[in-house]
Amino acid sequence: MKSILYISSITVILFSGLYLYQENMAPEWRMHQLKYLDQIEARQAINSKQKAAAYSFDIGLKQVWLPQMNRADRCISCHVALEDPAFIHAAIPLKAHPGDYLQKHDAQTYGCTICHDGQGRAITWKAAAADDADVSWDKPLLRKPFVQANCYRCHTDDLDQTPDFNRGRQTFETSGCLGCHKRGGKGGFVGPEFAGIGNASTHIKYPLKSFDPFTLTQFKGNLNLAYIYESVRFPGAQPQKTMMFDFKLSHAIAMELTVYLKSLASDQTGTQRLPPEPAYPLSLIETGSNMFKRYCTACHGKYARGGVKNPNYKNDFIPELNTLAERMFLYKKDRREAVIAILDEFGDLLEAGPQSDIPGFFKVVAKYMPVENIILNGRVVERKNPKGIPPLNMPAWGATILDKDVSAVIAYLISVY
Fold first, then answer.
1. 361-406 pLDDT tens trace
2. What's the pTM value of the predicted model, to 2 decimals?
3. DSSP codes of every residue in 6-48
4. Which of 33, 128, 220, 295 is least surrounded, with the fewest CB atoms within 10 Å of its CB?
């Protein structure tokens, strides 16, 4: 018994000593800093500036303290060559930051985790990356292409450096996602609000355990990214009785949408949104087209051609709207153009008064009014099976979009006949 106690005590002392040595005498960051100095001194064609940097470099734990952001980033304890162009081809972590990002984003001003996430106070790679199953951290390190999402914590306009984000946002804006979901309080009410999905708690929103392991590895353990991707590409995964359409998205499109949706996170303390570039005024048809793509395409189809099945709806499919001009008796092109011109000038046919130069104008107005009313106030559709699941109803948009935008949408629908 005594022998076991002695052996156990010696084992504990040895492991404690090894741990103390590793933490205080040979931590990861110290090894990287020593290697950095060795590589500088080993260079034959070293210039005076690099020599001065080597002589003034002190071995020690380093951090960037950003009180306005409430952040302390110790990443530079390992990434000591971050701003040294001579190390652009070195291996990580002794690799200089690629591109010219640091010329506009000084590390001492912005830190690292505002762009890359991860645990900035950590002093080991495992804890900093925070994407292992045994490391609990809601914001693990973001890798390509998902790091593009964090550019839009400050930037507003699309950047050339974020192609995946740009394509994802374009898909979102033209696929009618806001017909069911809200973004920043604007949009439909059938699905959940998107604001904050980029930092939703992984204890509440996470992918199924049966989620394709091969696919899951692409997210390096980031459950938030995996949940967003699963929701976009496999909407019936959870819950199975979802009202969201399965658009049969490709893997590439789902990944781009994931990058975009990841950017819809809560505001970060201390960051400032850069003002957007001034937009050129759009024509009435362009405004209506954009509004239709943003709010209506998912249900009424591309170019209002319909073809989307509505479960348990009496007529099976959500109606096409590209025949609106026909229903308004606007068979001739010149009459359609005349009505669109009136909408552009007055903003509403009801404000235009009698238009003697348009034959049957009152009949046109009589058909215009119920269309405007349905857009503003919605409509409950008839069920095929009264006891079956509720079909999708036409939502009311009166509280979401402006009256002039309603007229723009109607003008667009007239134009696509």
1. 999 999 999 999 999 999 999 999 998 888 999 999 998 899 899 9
2. 0.87
3. HHHHHHHHHHHHHHHHHHHTS-HHHHHHHHHHHHHHH-TT--H
4. 220
